[in-house]
Amino acid sequence: MSGADTTAATPPPPPPAPATVPLRRMIACIAASILLWTTQGLGMNLIAANTSQIQGALGATLTETSWLIAAYMAPNVSLTILLVKIRTQFGLRLFAEVGIAVFVLASTLHLFVFDLQSAVAVRFVAGCAASPISTLGFLYMLDAFPQAKKLTWGVSLALTLNTMMPVVARLISPYLLDIEPWRGLLILEAGLALSSLTFVYLLPLTPVPRAKVLHWLDFVSYPLLAIGFGGLAVTMSLGRYYWWFEADWIGILLALSILCIALAAAIEVNRDAPMLWIPTMSAACSEAKSATYSDVMSAGHSD
Predict the structure, then answer these.
(1) What is the C-alpha R_g of the chain?
(2) Which of 47-51, 98-102, 283-287 has the highest mean pLDDT?
(3) What angle do CA 140, 138, 124 make, to 5 degrees?
(4) What pTM, to 2 d.p., does this model score?
């Protein structure tokens, strides 16, 4: 192959990141991030904080209402792993537009729920749709700052917004429940979703280079991870209600979850481009343990 052919086949390098971000765009991106984190955080925490208040509206017991939390968390805890590769392959703009549109649809479906069975199904869809929203909230906050401050200001503010949402949900819940026990919570979620849709379409994120990263093994590993992490989420959400040693299905589900995660780890550790960098995670855990042990020993010697 000639030098000219090699140059033609090589994709152009991405444009360098700007040294500064215009003030108007910075403010707009921070506002978009706050709105997206609020939309995602309240969508998750309004139901979790008010299960005892909404059980009467759904004609269910507290234990049955807790399935709403489990149904939401089961897909949500693992879907972000796959979305990283989807975002890289299909582009940030398409990812953002499709993700927010699906979330608006899921939020609107809540308004047509009248019993527990349909509520559980809709909460499962909402858990799937909420995964890209948290990613967008993170990316908009990073996009508000220049490269030198993304991992300091950007990450810190994004994590702060994430941790604030359970508190905000508990603060505003009484006023929403005064409107209506079930719909009062969900009307706010639908309104926030529509507002977020406007921001995402009018304020696009800075594009990043695409790359073909999806592999057929991803579609073998991810179902195992989804079953494993989803089973753990259901177990942790409902174990204290059905009690750990009283319901046989809790032990069976926990064993199945561990088996699926172990199978996924066995596949991922032998891949060149895995979804989960298990050796890196293991090394980080080992370094953390070593640092903790050194700190303890140092404290003991100093005493």
Answers:
(1) 22
(2) 98-102
(3) 120
(4) 0.81
